[in-house]
Design brief:
It is a single chain. Strand 1, helix 1 and strand 2 form a beta-alpha-beta unit. The two termini are 31 Å apart. The protein has a domain of 139 residues: NAD(P)-binding Rossmann-like Domain (Rossmann fold, 3-Layer(aba) Sandwich). The strands form three sheets. The chain has a seven-stranded parallel sheet with strand order 3-2-1-4-5-7-10, sandwiched between helices. Strands 6-11 form a two-stranded parallel sheet. The chain is an alpha/beta fold and 272 residues long. The protein binds NADP nicotinamide-adenine-dinucleotide phosphate. NADP nicotinamide-adenine-dinucleotide phosphate binds next to strand 5 and strand 8. The site of NADP nicotinamide-adenine-dinucleotide phosphate (NAP) has 21 residues, from strand 5 and strand 8.
């Protein structure tokens, strides 16, 4: 089985390494020439790909010639044109690979497709126009392109990614008067993301949408202050609580369908 990991970044590279150990033929892309040797040295066929321009590059044809494409490019939160550019990028990829018989696209989506205030939120609750930010709307529009493409797809809506040196407390440590102290966090550890993708492939879960979020949803204030103490960082300070029904993204469908339990079920545990 061949898998092409479009975007060997923080999640894509460890995923590519994991799949290589499990006997996949793995191809991986980066936009950075400097990263090519690191990817090749790990045993992954490395490709220099920057979308949308590389879609017509004949030198990377063999990247697209694959059984599974793991689409793993973030929309770029600060991009003013994200609502048009990101779905166009996804459409470009769909057009590029759709001649391949039986290709399967696994799409790294995000829980930002959901409203921030929907309470317990499951896979059916994503509605255009209600996402928490423009990048979430762009991702939801891209999911629709995939679902309507006629290609097999699986959409994985990841919560905030953390683990192995990436922790959201690094953005908030030492800040004052932060909002929403009671807002529940929706996070997932890198290692569990890799395990979920592995199970999706192993169990052939095509044409499905899953939330991928760990079990624990501690309130922001409790979580960030505890993490700051754990990592010996300046404590973040929070303002008063608001009276809002915040989102808690449910992982029930993913856990039931895949018979999955998380290695890092609670972000409060402050594991690596
Ligand atoms: N970060 C989060 O908390 C979070 C939450 C939910 C979902 N997600 C989703 O999870 C996925 C992985 O996130 P991540 O944090 O691992 O991302 P990341 O570390 O930023 O890696 C992104 C990868 O995409 C490549 N890339 C960026 N722009 C590209 C372009 N125009 N053309 C081709 N390749 C491009 C990057 O190339 P280089 O190797 O050159 O950098 C990198 O390999 C993304 O799809 C993201 O939307 C992330």
């Amino acid at each position: 089985m061949r898998i092409s990991v479009l975007g060997c970044g923080w999640l894509g590279f460890p995923l590519a390494q994991h799949l290589l150990k499990n006997d996949f033929v793995v191809k991986g892309s980066t936009t950075s020439k400097d990263k090519l040797p690191q990817i090749s040295q790990a045993g992954i066929d490395s490709y220099l790909i920057e979308l949308p321009k590389s879609l017509t590059d004949p030198n990377v044809d063999s990247f697209w010639n694959t059984d599974i494409l793991f689409f793993n490019i973030p929309p770029g939160r600060g991009n003013k044109n994200v609502l048009t550019e990101y779905p166009e990028m996804v459409q470009g990829v769909v057009n590029r690979v759709k001649q391949n018989p039986d290709i399967w696209i696994i799409f790294a989506s995000s829980t930002s497709v959901y409203s921030e205030t929907g309470g317990i939120t499951s896979e059916d609750d994503a509605k255009p126009g209600t996402a928490s930010r423009p990048s979430g709307e762009a991702i939801l529009a891209s999911e629709a392109i995939l679902r309507e493409s006629g290609i097999d797809y699986t959409i994985l809506r990841f919560g905030g990614l953390y683990g192995y040196g990436r922790h959201p407390v690094n953005h908030l440590s030492g800040k004052q008067n932060l909002k929403s102290p009671c807002k529940p966090v929706n996070l997932v550890h890198q290692s569990d993301c890799v395990r979920v993708v592995d199970e999706i492939i192993r169990q052939k879960r095509r044409n499905k949408i899953y939330n991928v979020v760990s079990d624990g949803h501690p309130p922001r204030k409790e979580f960030y202050r505890s993490a700051a103490k754990h990592f010996n960082l300046p404590l973040p300070e929070f303002g008063p609580p608001e009276d809002i029904q915040f989102r808690v993204v449910s992982n029930q469908k993913q856990k039931n369908d895949l018979n999955f339990s998380f290695s890092y079920p609670n972000p409060m545990d402050h594991t690596p």
